[in-house]
Design a protein that fits this description.
Strands 1-2-3-4-5-6-7-8-10-9 form a ten-stranded mixed sheet, sandwiched between helices. It contains twelve helices and ten strands. The chain is an alpha/beta fold. The protein is globular, with a radius of gyration of 19 Å. The structure holds iron/sulfur cluster. Iron/sulfur cluster (SF4) binds next to helix 3 and strand 3.
Length: 327
């Protein structure tokens, strides 16, 4: 890893070694950093591998055509976040002794150009997949197809709307034949208002029914996060694309107040609502107990109550991911 790139990555206060340590950790976790200023990354999704190996696909392929799990490129243009969600499986600053860095705002010397990010993400993903070529279990045809992604999903980690050229990034993806999914925590409504083109599908994460629970679950690094999220929900109906609210459920933390969640739903008028179980994986295991992971029956129970209060109907469920779809 080029030291000068580390230096440009930020944090005059940081010992370069720490940045190297963080990048090594990302590398070990299957991330590949892209661009010159290392604020973007790509990773092969578990469901891409499942699709190649066992022909098992993610619920997005089942619920949202034309998604294809094996041709999905999971990436982020912004390796930093203004939330410290308890349920987040990625490494946060201070999660490990001696590993602390300024995650937000990323102080990079400059942001990489959208074309370079998309181009390098495709290339590094292709290199990550080459190992599957010789795998007898891998579906041959799917492997060939997988090398040419038809979808770019900005959901790997961090907050993609903090990258200043999200619109251009979407254009670069579309130029290369990819639809785009964008998953945002909703704290930059002004970025969504100026987004043009819009992503093919826009996800807003809603992890609490009210401000008090919000502060305890997402631990925002910005002071008016709840107000900004609500502003995002207010503008959502005016955004002409497929809009989804993603409710990540943590047992004992945010699985109450369906009436309040329904008020947020009425404000946002999404096309779909995903009620999804928190998964006890990655770094989140250090922050939450295993029994914070709801059972499928808990998710179905919650979805039924939310349906009663919001008027949305339960349309589908996907047990492997603990997810229920309402529309
Ligand atoms: S849509 Fe999401 S879960 Fe499905 S393959 Fe892409 S990144 Fe993975």
């Amino acid at each position: 890893m080029a030291t000068e790139a580390l230096g440009s990555m930020n944090n005059v206060s940081m010992e370069p070694s720490s940045m190297a340590e963080i990048h090594k950790t990302y590398f070990r976790q299957g991330y590949r950093l892209v661009g010159d200023h290392l604020h973007s990354a790509v990773k092969v999704c578990q469901w891409t591998k499942e699709s190649l190996r066992h022909n098992r696909v993610c619920y997005k392929e089942l619920w949202y055509p034309p998604v294809q799990s094996h041709r999905c490129m999971m990436m982020t243009p912004y390796l930093g976040c203004n939330y410290h969600c308890l349920y987040c499986w990625r490494l946060h600053s201070h999660d490990r002794p001696g590993l602390n860095w300024k995650e937000f705002p990323l102080t990079v010397e400059e942001f990489d150009e959208p074309a370079k990010i998309v181009e390098q993400a495709i290339e590094k993903r292709r290199l990550l997949l080459t190992g599957w070529k010789g795998n007898p279990k891998a579906d041959r045809k799917k492997f060939e197809e997988a090398l040419k992604p038809t979808m770019m999903t900005m959901s790997l980690t961090g907050e993609p709307t903090l990258y200043p050229q999200t619109s251009e990034l979407i254009m670069e993806a579309e130029k290369r034949g990819m639809i785009t999914f964008l998953v945002t925590n909703g704290t930059v409504p002004e970025a969504l208002e100026r987004l043009s083109p819009l992503p093919f599908q826009l996800y807003v994460s809603v992890s609490a029914p009210n401000r008090k629970t919000y502060l305890s679950v997402v631990k925002p690094l910005v002071k008016d996060g709840w107000e900004k999220l609500n502003r995002t929900l207010e503008i959502l109906p005016s955004l002409n694309t497929r809009r989804v609210l993603r409710l990540t459920m943590i047992k004992g933390w945010n699985m109450m107040g369906q009436e309040e969640y329904a008020e947020l739903v009425k404000k946002a008028q999404p096309n779909y609502i995903e009620v999804k179980a928190y998964e006890w994986v990655g770094q989140s295991q250090k922050r939450l107990p295993k029994n914070a992971m709801p059972y499928m029956r808990d998710i179905e129970e919650f979805a039924k109550k939310l349906s009663r209060h919001s008027g949305y109907t339960v349309k589908a469920k996907f047990e492997p991911s603990g997810a229920v779809l309402l529309a």
